[in-house]
Structure of Nucleoside triphosphate/diphosphate phosphatase:
Amino acid sequence: MSFPTAGTKIPIQSYKHNGTLHRTWEETIILKGTSKEIIGGNDRILVTESDGRQWRTREPAICYFSPDNWFNVIGMIRTDGIYYYCNLGSPITHDEEALKYIDYDLDIKIYPDMTYKLLDEDEYALHKKEMEYPEAIDRVLQKSVKQLISWINQRKGPFEPGFIDEWYEQFLQYR
């Protein structure tokens, strides 16, 4: 897999397990692109849902992707602190069109005080049945939820103090 280079602007596309397009973010500026991690930044970008509805993000965000992990992390910079939204999904791939991953419904929302909440378990159960997620996918996702919670508790990776602020400073240099 090739990796996007710093300074390039690229859309992000999420798909569902059955191959249908779920959501597209119009553009993210790549701040770092390596075989270990891809970090991007965006601010008030257009998001298009699979049904054609569109909306804009409300604040600047730093996005963390890994070709090795079954989750991605969005750090949203708000006036009252950094909120995180974590999508459980396939490891990211990249082609000339976009950064891409399969969204597996489960999400974790993290508040500025680092408390968190697992979301969309009902949606996951429904789609697991409807789209016939293999047991191997279920196992890796459950393991990834535990890994993500461990990272949150340890303040590891994108949850490390200063991580979002440092990458936001880099993002501002590209704007």
